[in-house]
Specification:
single chain, alpha/beta, six-stranded mixed β-sheet, four-stranded antiparallel β-sheet, about 35% helix, globular
């Protein structure tokens, strides 16, 4: 796949996406994430946020619709599409008997990253996330926040263009959350893209360039915070969110 062929394509394009589990979980969803954008996908519990992310990453197969990652169709070229992205679930899987360097070396190998490229990248990520002093400890003794940060480092080790995060700040203290937020902003500043879900609406309010609000598997509102305020009586994102989800 020639990346140059897809320079004009958005980071993520979802068209007519559907997934049923006895009832519609994702119901004709259309959504686009631009390059160099942090996009927050918000919604009440059971709205279809996590299902959408799992469909985008290929963990679930859609019943209908198309997903393109930087112009690559996920159904037609799954390996090529997945090479361009990384997914961090809300409960990331680590290997307790591995140390951080070993874990990052293992993940880099899975992505085909050369060892001489992976080593400095791993060091950079561990430094950024304040994990270097724990680099030679087994991850089984890590706190939830430390595990979350190491999983994020693993997601970034192959330098994906699209980062997909499901509740990335869950269980993090204020200092760890700041480190993660700074790393996400750096990724976007470098031309990468992020789509994330979060129940911490202040995070979306401060970080996201655009916000999508989903309910019952459908996108009911989308835009910048100011654009969403124009559709409601204004206020904080929390107030806007509650007005929009109540009105739908």
């Amino acid at each position: 796949m020639d990346d140059n062929m897809n320079d004009s394509a958005p980071a993520l394009r979802i068209d007519g996406l559907r997934k049923h589990f006895g009832r519609p979980a994702v119901d004709g969803l259309d959504l686009t994430v631009r390059r160099g954008e942090l996009y927050a996908l918000l919604g009440p519990n059971g709205a279809g946020k996590t299902t959408t992310l799992r469909l985008v990453t290929g963990l679930l197969a859609p019943d209908a619709g198309t997903i393109e990652v930087l112009g690559v169709d996920l159904a037609r070229e799954p390996a090529a599409a997945k090479m361009r992205m990384a997914y961090l679930p809300d409960e990331p899987l680590l290997y307790g008997k591995l140390k951080p360097y070993e874990y990052l070396e293992f993940v880099a190998g899975l992505w085909g990253v050369r060892a001489d490229e992976a080593a400095p990248r791993a060091q950079e990520l561990l430094d950024w996330l304040d994990l270097s002093r724990h680099a030679h400890e087994l991850t089984e003794g890590f706190s939830r926040g430390m595990k979350q940060k190491l999983a994020l480092a693993g997601a970034l080790i192959h330098q994906p263009q699209l980062l997909i995060l499901d509740e990335p700040l869950t269980g993090l203290d204020a200092a760890a959350a700041r480190q993660v937020k700074d790393l996400l902003l750096s990724h976007v500043a470098g031309g990468g893209s992020v789509i994330l879900t979060t129940h911490i609406l202040e995070v979306a309010e401060r970080l996201a360039q655009r916000i999508g609000i989903i309910r019952d598997g459908r996108l009911i509102a989308e835009g910048t915070l100011d654009q969403l305020r124009e559709r409601t009586q204004g206020g904080s994102l929390e107030e806007v969110f509650l007005q929009l989800t109540a009105a739908s």
